[in-house]
Specification:
Helix content is 34%, strand content 15%. It is of the alpha/beta class.
């Protein structure tokens, strides 16, 4: 922990200084989690350009607002530097000397060419935790391949098990690889910080999106790892349980449900008023239902089509059957449980006014988690130089939202 900065609040990473050299999704998600835990995150952005997400095509009706950037960069400070400029690079290295953590997600080798890589940083700061987050890692035959979330979903096999059996492989409709890599990076950084001593203990973390997604999906790869069996696609079905699928109801809505084990089978049959299934030789046990998957799914689909989604929700709720109505994003954000938990937070942005973001997902009894607005490009350049370096050597550009 930096001795020069007193903790701002009773947050676990209060007093930890992070230099954020990241952009787009995976890296910013990592540093946002660190900021949520109280770290002071200083995002070094390219002068006059900033994080690429600042220039993403805006959402319809939101022209002039940087909503995608704002979703990933709350509670950070922005410093605008040109790392190709000798003066700005020298200032960046002085900030790194006073930091506890550096996170970067440039293409492998880029930070070394810019003069702010691990070797240069560690030589100046032996206590530094330096995390390099990339698509495929800093070593290996794919090291220099460009990587985006769909590319990682493809190479890790998750597309091969997503989608309908008779259709093409399908990607998950959210940046799963980016977010999981960012989560693992934050996890690794927090653990590495525990090994730092006044004398040193810094280390380099090489974390790839490919490795992160394999680690996440690996919990379902036992069949392949142990038996060499490659599973196929089941749509919304479950390879180990039936019924477990998404079914259309009379009002056109869909409901997802799962009979998790044999103990839930009788309550399910009662919930759908089909006690006759308990004596049907095709359906009596889970192995039999798996062997007769299509018959079971067809029977459940026909039964659920007889009433609307609200009716089935109430029936399954009464009988303790795991289920949920399939929401769109608006429904997900307005879901009564999500509203009760307060996961959506509203903050005042200096350019966009009041904005809403999905906040931290944890609730700790002794640790409130305040959040601050995402920064304008270069908004904190002079303040950070003054605070960290006690320096007026650099003239901060006027904050802008370009």
């Amino acid at each position: 922990m930096s001795a020069t900065r007193a903790p701002d609040a009773a947050l676990p990473l209060a007093g930890i200084r992070v230099i954020d050299l990241t952009q787009v999704v995976a890296g910013p998600y990592c540093t946002m989690l660190l900021a949520d835990m109280g770290a002071e995150v200083v995002k070094i952005e390219r002068s006059g350009h900033g994080d690429d997400l600042r220039r993403t095509v805006p959402y319809k009706g939101r022209e002039g607002h940087q909503d995608y950037f704002n979703a990933l960069n709350r509670s950070k400070k922005s410093v605008a530097f040109n790392l190709k400029d000798e003066h700005d690079r020298a200032l960046a290295l002085q900030l790194i000397e006073r930091a506890d953590v550096v996170v970067e997600n440039f293409s492998p080798g880029t930070v070394d060419r810019l003069g702010v890589g691990w070797e240069a940083a560690h030589a100046r700061n032996p206590r530094l935790i330096y995390c390099a987050l990339s698509g495929f890692g800093q070593t290996g035959p794919y090291r220099n391949r460009p990587a985006l979330d769909p590319i990682i979903q493809a190479v890790t096999g998750i597309m091969s098990v997503t989608g309908e059996a008779d259709r093409d492989p399908m990607m998950v409709g959210a940046p799963l690889a980016d977010v999981i890599a960012g989560m693992f990076a934050a996890y690794a950084i927090v653990n590495a910080l525990r090994l730092v001593t006044p004398e040193g203990g810094g280390q380099y973390i090489d974390l790839s999106m490919q490795d992160a997604l394999l680690a996440a999906v690996g919990t379902r790869m036992g069949e392949t790892l142990q038996a060499g069996v490659v599973p196929g696609r089941l749509g919304n079905g479950n390879p180990l349980r039936v019924p477990a699928n998404t079914y259309k109801t009379a009002d056109g809505r869909h409901i997802s449900l799962m009979v998790h084990d044999q103990a839930q089978w009788p309550p399910f049959c009662r919930a759908v008023a089909m006690e006759s299934w308990l004596d049907d030789e095709r359906f009596r046990t889970m192995p039999l239902r798996l062997a007769n998957r299509k018959d079971m799914d067809d029977a459940v689909a026909q039964r659920l089509a007889a009433h609307d989604a609200r009716y089935w929700h109430e029936r399954f709720e009464a009988h303790g059957i795991p289920h949920a109505l399939v929401n769109d994003y608006a429904g997900a954000l307005d879901d009564p449980q999500a509203v009760h938990r307060g996961i959506v937070r509203e903050i005042d942005h200096p350019a966009s006014g009041k904005i809403k973001v999905v906040g931290p997902p944890w609730q700790m009894s002794a640790m409130p988690t305040p959040i601050a607005p995402p920064p304008l490009l270069g908004q904190h350049t002079q303040a950070v130089l003054d605070d960290w370096l006690g320096s007026r050597d650099a003239s901060a550009p006027a904050p802008n939202n370009n």
